[in-house]
Amino acid sequence: MGTENNRGIWYAISAFSMWGILPLYWHYMNKVPALEILAHRIFWSFLFVALLITVQKKWNDVIKVFQTWKVILAIFGCSLFISANWFIYIWAVNNGHVIETSLGYYINPLISIAFGMLFLRERLNSWQWVALSFALIGVLIQTIEFGQFPWIALSLSVTFALYGLSKKLIKVEAMTSLVLETMMVAPFALGYILFIEARGTGSITDLPVSNVLLLIGSGIITALPLLWFAQGAKRVSLSTLGFIQYLAPTIALVLGVFFFHEHFTKVNFISFGFIWIAILIYSLSQMKLLDRWFSRKSLVKERI
Fold first, then answer.
1. Domain range enclosing 93
2. How much is the pTM?
3. Contact 65, 12 (CB under 8 A)
4. Helices and strands of the chain, counted as H and E runs
5. Could you tell me if residue 96 is left (phi over 0), alpha (psi between -120 and 50 degrees) or otherwise beta?
6. Which of 88, 110, 207, 241 has the fewest CB neighbours in a 10 Å radius?
7. Each residue of 117-130: b (16+ CB within 10 Å) or e?
8. Strand, coil or helix: what is 141?
């Protein structure tokens, strides 16, 4: 059991670490339009996962899914939401908004909580309500600081939360689900790639070989963390996964400040501070640590 838990932790750390450093990958492809990168990311992801499915002889599992319309529609929803999320993320990184993408993935779990309440009738305890309140304050501060609606952060968090909600509604093995998600949009991605190449506006013929390899490799770096995440989620507790989850936006935030040299003001620090407090409160509430601490304090007072 301990060995499985440790393996799960390393799977999760690997997944979120890779997601955290992805801004560096997209940065070195900033000469390629975001929509073209997205098309390549989808198409090569499908080929990579299809190859894994073939090696593992799991195409029968894929075929079985097509017998249920509800599952097909849910997976199609997954395809749309994750594609939108990828596009916004790539565009934001290549246009100097790495810190805002970090904010988006910090508040994503809290948006998922709200969706759980709205659509799955999940209930929050008092501490989780406090966490949501702190997160809302942080977003409002960020909105006032920007002088406009922080649409990048909220779009990223909402689309990924919708992706998670769609995944919650289906009971399909991780690799089977991923190959279906990419399969449903791969024809559109390939069609777009062929269209722009035929028009002479595509990047493959103009880019150096190293950049073309980066485009092809985008499929692998897309699929691997998703598969690692699925393996980690099967082996560790939700609270442990919740803590590790914040590794990705933390790495992205550090990259945004120190590598991309984006401006991080005192107001940004205050805004992120409220988000970090919300994360801490929510994570501790998941492990019942706050309830235990306050119950012990009340017992001490009674004895006094």
1. 2-303
2. 0.79
3. no
4. 13, 0
5. left
6. 207
7. eeeeeeebeebbeb
8. helix
Decide if 153 contacts 101 (C-beta within 8 A). yes
Distance CA 296, CA 198 (A): 70
* Residue 208, phi-psi category: left (phi > 0), alpha (psi -120 to 50), beta (remainder): beta
What length is written for the chain? 304
Cα–Cα distances in angstroms (integers) from residue 152 to residues 93, 136, 157, 271, in the given order: 10, 16, 9, 16
Task: Tell me the two tokens of residue 23.
Answer: 């801004």
Residue 286 amino acid letter = Q
Question: Tens-of-pLDDT digits for all 304 residues of the chain?
Answer: 567 778 888 888 898 899 899 889 888 888 888 899 999 999 999 999 999 999 988 898 888 887 778 788 888 888 999 899 989 999 998 888 888 888 888 888 778 777 877 887 767 778 778 888 888 888 788 777 766 777 898 899 899 888 878 877 777 777 888 888 899 999 999 999 999 989 888 888 787 888 888 888 998 998 898 888 877 877 776 556 666 777 888 888 889 888 888 888 888 888 888 888 887 887 777 666 555 655 665 555 555 5
Taking phi over 0 as left and psi of -120 to 50 as alpha, with beta for the rest, 39 belongs to alpha
Sign of torsion, CA 266 267 273 279? negative
Return all residues near 233 (Cβ < 8 A) that are at least 6 apart. 8, 12, 241
Pick the closest to residue 105 from 16, 32, 206, 205 (CA basis).
16
* 46 contacts: CB under 8 Å, gap ≥ 6: 179, 182, 183, 186, 189, 219
H or E stretch at 254: helix 247-258
| CA nearest neighbour of 36 among 97, 94, 100, 104 | 94
